[in-house]
Design a protein that fits this description.
The protein has 256 residues and is an alpha/beta fold. The chain has one domain: Alpha-Beta Barrel (TIM Barrel), CATH 3.20.20. The chain contains eight helices and eight strands, in the order βαβαββαβαβαβαβαα. It is globular, with a radius of gyration of 17 Å. Bound molecules: zinc ion (2 copies). One zinc ion (ZN) binds next to loops.
């Protein structure tokens, strides 16, 4: 079962048509990721309307509003299977105040995940040690480091904490060698695949708006790197997806 483990369907024009295009290429599940209070209703509506779409609710480190308390309202929604995306993004130069704001927001959501026993979707960039220390402070939490672009050392430390790592279309980019290294070295049972659409369209779609159908191209690249067939990539990453996001209930008809 090939799944796009991280997409922002609500930011795509004609999401219905984009879902159809992905299904036609064999994509059987979609985790639609919330990033802020403004967009969450659209995310949940997509998950309500489609048996193969699930939702994650969270506040992105760079979302404008400060207080993530709104998330609590959505915890009991039947289509919510995860919390996030949440995390730290220090890639751009940030002052100490913004950094501590991101850390407080991340800590709040990790705490919520601990209470609710929900897996987390983590966004981390340019903040390796700060991210790892917050993950270590919440040892009961499980989850995935999405669109991973950091060092193998960081991936390895996250694996030790029980986390999964998700590979995006960056693995197909000419300058994506560090991501290819991670995609080669990850243990098979911790690997996920995603688009993060509408951003980061993989080769051969560079320059286009990314969409869930293109997860097939990223999966093919991962297969090449690991010596796996397309079927193996789909079954291994699909199995991992279902193990991590264990509130996912598959549609009655069709699919695995
Ligand atoms: Zn992200
Ligand atoms: Zn995202």
């Amino acid at each position: 079962m090939l799944v796009d483990s991280h997409c922002h369907l609500n930011y795509l024009d004609e999401p219905e048509a984009r879902l159809q295009a992905a299904r036609a290429r064999g994509v059987q599940g979609f985790l639609c990721i919330g990033v802020d209070a403004e967009g969450i209703e659209a995310v949940l509506a997509l998950a309500d309307d489609h048996a193969d779409v699930w939702a994650s609710v969270g506040q992105h480190p760079e979302a404008a509003a400060a207080d993530p308390g709104w998330i609590d309202t959505y915890l009991d929604h039947p289509r919510v299977v995860a919390l996030g995306e949440m995390g730290l993004d220090f890639y751009r130069e940030h002052g100490a105040q913004e950094k501590s704001r991101q850390q407080a927001r991340f800590d709040y959501q990790l705490h919520l995940a601990e209470q609710q026993r929900l897996p987390v979707v983590i966004h981390t960039r340019g903040a390796e040690s700060e991210t790892l220390s917050l993950l270590r402070a919440h040892p009961g939490v499980r989850g995935v480091l999405h669109c991973f672009t950091e060092s193998w050392e960081m991936a390895s430390a996250a694996l030790d904490l029980g986390y999964y790592v998700s590979i995006s279309g960056i693995v197909t980019f000419r300058n994506g060698e560090n991501v290819r290294e991670v995609a080669r070295r990850l243990p098979g049972d911790r690997l996920l695949v995603e688009t993060d659409c509408p951003w980061l369209a993989p080769v051969p779609h560079r320059g286009k708006t990314n969409e869930p159908a293109f997860v097939v191209d990223t999966a093919a690249c991962i297969g090449e790197l690991r010596g796996w067939s397309a079927e193996e990539v789909a079954s291994v990453t699909g199995e991992n997806f279902r193990r991590l996001f264990d509130r996912v209930r598959l549609p009655e008809a069709g699919g695995l």
